[in-house]
Design goal:
alpha/beta, Spore Coat Polysaccharide Biosynthesis Protein SpsA, Chain A, 10-stranded mixed β-sheet, 10 strands, 39% helix
Length: 283
């Protein structure tokens, strides 16, 4: 098995307690040990700073912003501090599958012409009784160009450092700065999106109807400005739907439409890897 190369895991955090403990635990349980975690504390005032300063593993590099600057600035600072051959993401309320880094590094080592390895993502909420699966791929090599809709999710992706540092996160984008970055990073390059869930996205506790609507507005403007009128029209339809129908729906009804039902294996791995970490936060 060809697995080598330092991975820089970038973690922006603003007021991440207590879920950041579960995120850190999932990183420490990785079967692949050659990583560093660059944590950018974006002006937290909830005890996150004290928790980060208590970490003793030398693989953690912590940088503090005295004031909250925003997710794009925090991601960019993490990218600037990263030293690894590969770049991975881990938001401070999300959880890794224990084999995530090992699986993606192996693919990167085997395929030198591939610039991004994505993976499936399991969306969950600490207070939800359901999960949904998003962004699974076919495991084949594909060529991306910026005129196409973006085919992978940012959070579970792994990138090549030497190419990643040629681009920057746009500080003007409150929403969508992650996909905006990846679209420019991957333009004209090969990628693989794996048909396996390797990332657990704590989405359902924070998503609101207004947040979903704001995201639709962003994409309507972005695609229209880029001349992608089909995609702009698609999100316009979703935006109109949100105004007409959302007032009559409960949030969980909306969220259940995002993604697909998990397979038996997906559900079992969520129970095995995520539920124990979430339960420990309540003990």
């Amino acid at each position: 098995m060809n697995i080598k190369g330092l991975v820089s895991v970038i973690m922006p955090v603003h007021n991440g307690m207590p879920m950041i403990k579960a995120s850190i635990a999932s990183l420490l349980e990785q079967t692949y040990p050659d990583w560093e975690c660059v944590i950018v504390n974006d002006g937290s005032d909830d005890g996150t700073r004290d928790y980060l300063e208590s970490l003793t593993d030398s693989r953690f590099l912590v940088h503090h912003f005295d004031k909250n600057q925003g997710r794009p600035q925090a991601r960019q600072k993490g990218l600037e501090l990263a030293k690894g051959e590969f770049i991975a993401m881990l938001d401070a309320d999300d959880i890794y599958h224990p084999e995530k880094l090992a699986v993606q590094v192996e693919v990167m080592n085997k395929s030198s012409n591939v610039y991004l390895v994505g993976a499936g993502m399991c969306s969950f909420g600490c207070n939800a009784d359901f999960i949904r699966i998003r962004s699974k791929g076919d495991g084949e090599v594909h060529l991306y160009n910026i005129t196409k809709s973006f085919p992978v999710a940012h959070a579970p992706s792994m990138l090549r450092h030497e190419h990643a540092v040629k681009f920057s996160y746009n500080p003007a984008l409150k929403f969508g700065q992650d996909i905006d970055y990846l679209r420019r990073y991957l333009d004209g390059k090969m990628y693989i999106n794996l048909p396996r869930v390797l990332y657990y996205y704590s989405e359902f506790d924070s998503v609101t109807k207004e947040k979903i609507r704001s995201t639709y507005k962003l994409y309507v403007k972005k695609f229209f400005k880029a001349g992608e009128y089909f995609n702009s029209s698609k999100y316009t339809a979703k935006l109109i739907y949100s105004y007409v129908v959302y007032p009559f729906l409960k949030p969980n009804t909306i969220l259940k439409k995002r993604g697909v039902e998990p397979t038996i294996e997906d559900a079992k791995e969520f129970q095995d890897y995520c539920i124990p970490k979430i339960k420990r936060l309540r003990d």
